[in-house]
Design a protein that fits this description.
By secondary structure, the protein is mainly alpha-helical. The protein contains nine helices and seven strands, in the order ααβαααβαββααβββα.
């Protein structure tokens, strides 16, 4: 599952295997999807992740020990830590995920980035796995496929209509933004629009 740490680390291993410069490729990819070429990695966040990422490093070693990925652990977790350190505004992140609300089509690239089937799968994963162990309660309260991050951001999608991002740094015990979740619940309650 790419929406939990172990799965995201395996995806990073795949990127390290397939790309000459995976950090730059990930940055370029994010810039193109968002339409913003000012996006950078936050070096302070990347360094903090590297200094405190004991569990993620342990997960990577566990996966490596079970032959679930092929590259050097330090190389893979470096990419993972940088992925966690992408610095974006709410509007940039919402734009970067708009294709998930638009049947895979990008307004920026004027092309399909994903097939309808792939979009359905990504949105289903977000709905069922995107907000850690609060996923059931979040789906009940908000009713949108979403992915939260420990930086306090939550991206949510209403297929066929919009992608929205909220950000507030205080997290609940599950690792989701308290005010961000409340804002999304307010949005779907006031508009009467959700996937349910």
């Amino acid at each position: 599952n790419p929406f939990i740490n172990a799965g995201a680390i395996v995806i990073c291993d795949i990127l390290v295997s397939q790309l000459d410069d995976p950090r730059q490729a990930l940055l370029d990819y994010t810039r193109v999807f968002s339409g913003s070429f000012d996006i950078q990695y936050d070096p302070v966040v990347a360094q903090s992740e590297a200094e405190t990422g004991y569990i993620n490093r342990a997960l990577a070693n566990f996966l490596k020990g079970h032959n679930k990925f092929v590259n050097d652990v330090d190389t893979v977790v470096d990419l993972y830590f940088h992925q966690c350190a992408l610095a974006m505004s709410c509007s940039e992140l919402a734009q970067a995920t708009l294709h998930l609300a638009n049947d895979g089509k990008s307004d920026i690239l004027e092309d399909s980035l994903l097939t309808s089937s792939q979009v359905k799968r990504v949105n289903a994963l977000m709905l069922t796995c995107g907000t850690y162990d609060e996923v059931g309660e979040f789906a009940f309260r908000v009713g949108l496929p979403a992915k939260s991050g420990v930086g306090g951001g939550i991206i949510a999608v209403l297929p066929g209509e919009y992608s929205v991002d909220v950000w507030s740094p205080e997290l609940d015990s599950y690792g989701n933004s308290i005010m961000g979740g409340a804002a999304l619940e307010y949005l779907t309650t006031m508009t009467g629009r959700s996937v349910f």
